[in-house]
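Hi there,

I know you've been waiting on this one. I reran it after we fixed the sequence typo, so this is the corrected version. Both the input and the resulting structure follow.
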Amino acid sequence: MTSRMTRRTLLAGTAGALVAGHLTTPAVAAVGSDGFASVNALGQNGTTGGAGGTVVTATTAEQFLDYIDTVGALTIQVSGTITISSKQGVRPNKTVVGLGSSAVINGGGLDFYRSYNVIVRNLRFTDAEDDAVNIGQNSHHIWVDHNEFSGAVDGAVDIVRGAEYVTVSWNWFRGTDKSMLIGHSDGSSSTDKGRLKVSIHHNFFDGSRQRHPRVRFGEPVHVYNNYFRANELYGVASTMDAGVLVEGNYFENVPFPVLVGYGDSGPGRVVQRDNVFVGSGAPQTAGTVQEPRGFYPYTLDNPADVPRLVRAGAGVGRI
């Protein structure tokens, strides 16, 4: 068995992917982020992940945990099912991407603690015992794209504790409960206010219950061109003076599509425009919100087309 130190030495001089000690041809093309993950800020020119670094392939949990803990740029291709526990830290400058349509992270999740410039794509996250993806502690420039989430005990994707410049796009939330929390708690104003800049677009919230997202303090949080279907508790909730723009989405059979305030949390601010509501309740709105166009350009798809576009494009095997 190759030791951790030996494996890292091999990585430093390897031009292709390392699979069980053998080199293979890199299989992942460079991609560009959008939304807040694409913004030049905090010394980072958008989100490029492991571009320019070595490409490796993980087929075991041992390899996977070693690669995400490696210092430096690295593209980590995931092959098959990787079963881990708890939340495992990911160092900066990584692309973690599934091969084909059968790559799975099972049982545990990914944790970002003061990390940055990471892309997570084309992975199924199943049965995480805590969060599937936790972006926290001032992490920034994280792009979560074309993944599928199911069965997490806590959050599918949480963005908390001063994280910012995050994009969550083209993911399939399949019957998740706590789909996406932005802002850790009502007492987190000192760490979260003025941060938590997040773009959420073209996701399929499919029979998921709540938090699509639930936001505290963040502004602007831009929720656009998502497909909300049969969300039992609510769609989007803006609380604790958060500023959320809900734009160009399609809500189908969602009794409470947009809420101002939730539970014990005080009210936030919400602007909604150009959304479609089918078999759904009326959205709540309040106040004004900073426009995301001041940070990045974007083009809305026709909201009437969103169910078709999202069903065809969200989830794994579509990149």
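Quick highlight: The chain has one domain: 36-313.

Best,
R. S.
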